[in-house]
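seq as requested:
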Amino acid sequence: MDRIIFLSVYQSNRVGVALIDVKGEIHLQNDFFHSFSKSTVLDLVGLINTASTRTKCINVQDVSFFLQCIPVQKILQSGIAYVILASRNEEDGSSAPLVKQYYQAFIDNTFEFIFFTDSQDKIAFSNRLFNLKFGSVPSVGWRIADIFENESQYHELKETLLAQGRVSAAKVFFNNADGTRLTGLVNAQLLRSENNDPLINWTVLDVSDRMEFEERMQAKNDQLAKLNYQMEKFVYSTSHDLRSPLTTILGLGNLLRLDTRDRNVLDYADKIEVSANRLDKIIRDILSFSRATYQNEHVQEIRWLPVVNSVIENHRSHPHFDRIAIDTHVDGDAVFYLDATRLEIILDSLIGNAIHYTDVNKTRSFVHIKIALTVQEAVISVHDNGIGMNYDEVIENIGTIAKSGTKSFLEKLSGDEK
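struct tokens:
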């Protein structure tokens, strides 16, 4: 609140405010004081050397102005030693002690460290927090570039200030008093002295702790990403290693059927094939879960027929696959962008169940897949004449769908995609 009040007093221009040094040189002034000082010759050194009240009444173009000099050498750590207030009547000038209080609160009671630099790139003054951060009161002639970790960054900021007049939220690295790095967000503004020399007002917020926290979080995220990648690679490699011998077993079963007509041997071959297919489905479910859980989302334009055909081919090893009439129809030409891998997961659950629960007693088994595309949505319908499922089987297969990664896929879709 003190800071806001001081700024409102300075910017309102109801009274003139100027910062001067012991030699009477003006370093900073608002518009009121600038207009006032151009209209008369001010003896600021004489004002400093007057009685302890340091108040003077002067007449400018038949208007009386009251000047009051407020010593602030305890506030500013530099040659700037006084605040001069100029007002059109004595009552406005009587607010000087309050303005001084607000000014002191503005400079010292803030979370930012504040300092001014002159045309020689030297510290003109600094607040209390600045001195705490950098160890001691700056000595005369201390270069501002000395507190920057990279001096070239200071010169880049200064060039921007001279060209644009302002810098906002620039991340800057400073040299802390204990030798550590201090990360600050810098706001800076170019001002002009009475002699039109450039002055820069710097306000810096210390964000070192926040930056350190963000760096630690980023390191942990990178570590988790690496672990996820290793997990995905392990699951894929293991699943691939398991599927290879299963494919061999299924191939040997088919050869066994060609070499014998013994009903017992053929029955054994059928049972081996059924068990191998079940294990193969489990492995594919693990792969689907791995892809849905660990892989980064890769959005691309969906080509519906190739995706559906790829899913159908995954179930070609089913013992009754050749007896099922499967047809796919895509209605509409709206373009959709999704993660193709996760889309395959949900299609595999729908189409796989339709194939798995085919009714072998029917003369003609079928699976009709229809995809209706509009600008708003894509509706996927799978219609089959299989054996169906009772209530317990529905509950069991919903769990299978969830474990296969379909649930994870749905959770990762946005509201529009669902």
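The chain is about 45% helix and 25% strand.
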